[in-house]
């Protein structure tokens, strides 16, 4: 914010007439500059096709990247890729396995220390969903965080 005027927005929001508005396209972090109905940048874990973010029908535990057909193409660092699935590597002595978010919706960011989606306003998503933590931040709270 510069002089009380918004000049950029958090991921998942777009700037229009000096205000930030929530992107309504699911899983979209940045809209196309030429078309507000097309996504230019999806959540890191997803691929895009024809301006839309493609989410898989089934979440694969440990998957770090999906292709445009919703198939896992890459696993997280604690997993190995095998036959389209991600197999957990065993823990070393002194390490403990913890569940973490697969991805966070716009308005939230993954806190690697605790494995939860943390809102830009400081809230935490502690729900136990399908392996993806999806949550929408209130526009007012995001705007207030800039003041």
Fill in the keyword field for this structure:
5% helix; two-stranded antiparallel ribbon; mainly beta; 147 residues; 13 strands; three-stranded antiparallel beta sheet
What's the structural blueprint in terms of helices and strands?
Blueprint: E1 13-16, E2 19-22, E3 28-31, E4 39-42, E5 47-49, E6 52-54, E7 63-66, E8 72-75, E9 79-82, E10 85-88, E11 108-111, E12 116-119, E13 124-125, H1 139-146
Antiparallel strand pairs: 1-2, 3-4, 5-6, 7-8, 9-10, 11-12, 12-13
Beta content comes to 25-35%
Shape field? flat
Q: Kindly provide the radius of gyration, computed on alpha-carbon positions and rounded to a whole number of angstroms.
A: 17 Å
Q: Which percent range fits the helix content?
A: under 10%
What's the mean pLDDT score? 75
Low-pLDDT runs? 127-147
What would you call the structural class? Answer: mainly beta
Detailed description of the structure:
With 147 residues, the chain is mostly beta strands. 5% of the residues lie in helices and 33% in strands. The protein has 1 helix and 13 strands; from the N terminus they run βββββββββββββα. The protein has a 3-stranded antiparallel sheet with strand order 11-12-13, with no helix packed on it. β7 and β8 form a beta hairpin. The longest helix is centred in the C-terminal third of the chain and has 8 residues, at 139-146.
In short:
Helix content is 5%, strand content 33%. The chain contains one helix and 13 strands, in the order E-E-E-E-E-E-E-E-E-E-E-E-E-H.
């Amino acid at each position: 914010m510069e002089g009380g005027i918004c000049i950029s927005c958090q991921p998942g929001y777009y700037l229009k007439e000096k205000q930030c508005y929530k992107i309504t396209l699911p899983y979209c972090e940045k809209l196309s500059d030429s078309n507000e109905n097309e996504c230019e940048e999806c959540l890191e874990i997803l691929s895009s096709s024809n301006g839309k973010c493609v989410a898989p029908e089934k979440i694969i535990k440990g998957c770090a990247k999906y292709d445009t057909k919703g198939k896992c193409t890459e696993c997280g660092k604690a997993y190995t890729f095998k036959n389209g699935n991600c197999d957990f590597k065993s823990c070393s002595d002194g390490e403990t396995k913890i569940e973490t978010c697969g991805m966070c919706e716009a308005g939230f960011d993954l806190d690697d220390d605790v494995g939860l989606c943390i809102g830009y306003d400081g809230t935490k998503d502690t729900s136990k969903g399908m392996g993806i933590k999806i949550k929408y931040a209130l526009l007012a709270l995001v705007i207030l965080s800039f003041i």
